[in-house]
């Protein structure tokens, strides 16, 4: 688990199973001014979402072991129905994104392809979390 703290920053729950990608992404998000809680798997993320801790955005890899990103978001929506989601993937997942949006239009959902274009990442985060 990696936590980067910036005063009065929006808080992002980052879920990424690749250690290097998780650490690099957490560092970049911290440089953008976000507070980041970075976790390895969906089950750990759900534990945090069950807590009282505030999150402004869930950023999750789609291809997680055990519970994949789609399953994580489905469970997260039961706990926090309006939490914005940014899916991350090595592939463009248009069908997945459309499916998730169709099921729950109350919360904004977007995607970004890895490796990240940092300008696009900053834009998506700003649109979703402010």
TrEMBL record:
Pfam families: Response_reg (PF00072). Residues 11-129 form the Response regulatory domain. The keyword Acyltransferase does not apply. GO terms for biological process: phosphorelay signal transduction system. InterPro entries: Bact_response_regulator, CheY-like_superfamily, Sig_transdc_resp-reg_receiver. It comes from the Bacteria. The modification 4-aspartylphosphate is found at residue 61. Keywords: Phosphoprotein. Gene3D superfamilies: 3.40.50.2300. This is CheY chemotaxis protein or a CheY-like REC (Receiver) domain. It comes from Pseudomonas sihuiensis. The lineage of its organism: Bacteria, Pseudomonadati, Pseudomonadota, Gammaproteobacteria, Pseudomonadales.
